[in-house]
Structure formats: C-alpha cells, structure tokens
Design a protein that fits this description.
By secondary structure, the chain is mainly beta. It contains three helices and 14 strands.
C-alpha cells in the first residue's frame, strides 16, 4: 500500500470506532457445563491483565459473572469465515430484546463455525483448537460501561501457543510467524509486513531491520 498523501482533515462521524483491534473467540461455561463460544473485538492488555468489552445482555458476560473462568482464543486471518458465521448468534434463549434485530439463537456455535473444542488446563471452558494462540484466564472485575456494554478485567493464568509461532529456545511469540485477525471498521484484515519495532523488542532480528 502506498503511503497516504496528507491533506486537510475533515470532520466525520463513523458508525464504529474499531480502528484496528484483534478478533477473539471467547469460551465461557454455561450453567449445564457446556462451553459457550462467542466473538469479541474490543480488547487491550497490560501485563498479565486483559480488558475485554462485552455486551451486557450476552451469554458471555452472564456466564462470567456466575462462573468466572474464560479462554481467549485468537484466530488467524484464514478463519475469518468461521468468525463471521457466529458473529450474529447468541447462546441466550430467548434472544434478549436488545439483540433480536440482528442476532439468532445458536446452541452449538462450535459446529456452526466448524471449530473444535479443546480441553483447558486450569479453567473449565474449552479452548479453540484451530487458534494458534490461546489464553486461559479468570474474571477479576466487571465494570458497567456507557450504554449496553461492560468491561471485563481478566487475569491471564496460562498461555498456549503453537510451537511454529514461538521463537525456538525462547518463550517469545515470533510476530513474523504469527498473525492475528484484525477487525477494522467492520472488515477482517491480516497483518502486513513489518515496518519497524521497539528498541526493547524480544524478537527483533537484524535481517528484518535492513
């Protein structure tokens, strides 16, 4: 992509502010012990804590408030159709009034998305086998946000990674081998080539800096 030629800015009112955030597949435990699978894309992290934005009326936050275990699974860009197939589904039956305009009830989202549940180590909900990067975590705090959203603060207890995305002999994820799915203004994108890195990067390589 050619660099944008700067010009005068204009005032705009986009319908969403997803400038570019990672897509997540969240797994929480239903009352009957099964795993609910949902899609999220509001995320930030600090140390071993991550903060996820969730709809107040969804099955995910309801499950978390009753059973605080969760897995956070990051799909690669080739799985965008699996993500999209369940993006407008809910595990709530009946569908909450605030979601009826768009959402439908789906009791088996794994099957609908053609994804595979994988047992977790330290939490109850399953992981998503097809995701190369997976977090097991536990809810620490849920804070109501503006409107119909909630902010869930989750402590990451264990991290699973496909060995192909780990720098050999280290504990570091290799960003040249790993690509999240990026959600930007309702579009799914991959990550383009590296353009630079922080001075304190654990994975910088001289070849990439030439």
């Amino acid at each position: 992509m050619q660099p944008l030629q700067l010009t005068e800015h204009i005032i705009v009112e986009p319908s969403v502010l997803y400038v570019g955030t990672p897509v997540m597949l969240l797994c929480t435990e239903n009352p009957d012990g099964t795993t609910n699978l949902s899609v999220a894309s509001s995320y930030w992290s600090l140390g071993r804590m991550i903060v996820i934005g969730l709809l107040n009326q969804g099955r995910t936050i309801k499950n978390l408030l009753e059973r605080p275990d969760i897995t956070v699974n990051f799909p690669s860009p080739d799985k965008w159709k699996s993500v999209e197939s369940i993006a407008d589904t809910t595990g709530m039956d009946p569908v909450p009034a605030t979601k009826r305009h768009r959402y439908t009830y789906e009791p088996d989202k794994f099957a609908r998305a053609d994804l595979t549940p994988q047992p977790s180590d330290v939490v109850g909900p399953s992981r998503v086998r097809e995701c190369a990067l997976q977090f097991e975590g536990r809810l620490c705090k849920a804070t109501p946000g503006a409107g119909e959203y909630c902010m869930a603060e989750v402590e990451v207890l264990r991290i699973h990674a496909d060995p192909r995305i780990v720098v050999p002999g280290t504990q570091h994820i290799d960003p040249s081998m790993w690509q999240p799915t990026i959600y930007s203004f309702r579009h799914y994108l991959g990550v383009s080539e590296e353009v630079g890195h922080r001075a304190n990067s654990d994975t910088a390589h001289p070849v990439r800096n030439s």
